[in-house]
Design goal:
transmembrane helix; transmembrane; transport; 264 residues; MetI-like fold; mainly alpha; membrane; MetI-like_sf
Length: 264
């Protein structure tokens, strides 16, 4: 009993330590964002001037717009491609199934920087180089394995008898897909889309290699800013994104139930 108690205490202490390790950078970012003395700590007051400067910057607003469009398109394409692939892998047994799954998941095995450089070299050789199409292709390929993994797990939890019952009463494959399959795996689709969007929004290596002039995503704009500016505007922007992420979690919880989304 004594060993069990000590083990439980050690596990709880380690969990609290890891939570503190993860929360500490977020807390520092938020404190710096409202500190009048830029990066000097401890803070000596409260100000929202850094937030005003961040949200009045045309460069950052343009980068947010690019990242928003890029994230939405990449997440949509990734899920549109991953869904039929997941259905084929879950519903069918065929020779080479493991190899096909390995190929589809292979972007996770390659470091993102190497993948980005290789993709850039390939597009240069075929005559594209950096551009909007290569940027979308890179983001979509990068996030699609995550969508495939989540949707595969959701389809494994779907009882095939539901779809069989729909087809037995005359529903075609398309009607069954939209009336039975997609509604049942809705939480998986939400979590998959959200994860793909977040990964695309935060991606830096692919964006820095493939982004064309005029289509620079926010991570690249932020990196360019902090190389030459020494103030807390970057912290205010990061703090804003943290708060927006928390708001997005609340919205997901209201729409679909956060616990159901995380379980899927």
């Amino acid at each position: 009993m004594m060993r069990l108690d000590l083990g439980t205490i050690a596990l709880r202490f380690f969990t609290l330590l890891m939570m503190a390790f993860l929360i500490f950078p977020i807390a520092v970012t938020l404190v710096v964002a409202v500190n009048p003395r830029e990066f000097i700590l401890p803070p000596n007051g409260f100000t929202l001037d850094w937030f005003k400067a961040a949200w009045s910057s045309k460069t950052f607003l343009r980068g947010m717009g690019v990242s928003l469009v890029l994230g939405l398109v990449a997440a949509t394409l990734a899920n549109a491609l991953a869904l039929p692939a997941a259905m084929a892998l879950v519903r069918n047994d065929f020779r080479g199934k493991g190899a096909v799954n390995l190929v589809l998941m292979s972007p996770l095995l390659i470091p993102t920087t190497i993948f980005s450089l290789a993709l850039y070299i390939w597009f240069v050789r075929v005559g594209y180089g950096s551009g909007l199409v290569p940027l979308l292709v890179g983001h979509t390929i990068h996030v699609m394995p995550y969508a495939l993994r989540i949707l595969t797990a959701s389809l494994h939890n779907l009882d095939p008898s539901y779809e069989e019952a729909a087809r037995n009463v005359g529903a075609g494959r398309t009607r069954t897909l939209f009336s039975i399959t997609l509604p049942v795996i809705r939480t998986g689709l939400i979590s998959s889309f959200a994860l793909c969007f977040i990964l695309s929004w935060n991606d830096f290596p692919i964006s820095v290699f493939l982004a064309p002039p005029g289509w620079t995503p926010l991570p690249v704009e932020l990196f360019s800013y902090i190389k030459f500016q020494y103030d807390a505007v970057a912290a205010a922007l990061a703090g804003s994104l943290i708060l927006l992420s928390a708001l997005a979690m609340v919205i997901i919880d209201r729409l679909a139930g956060l616990r159901r989304v995380l379980r899927s």
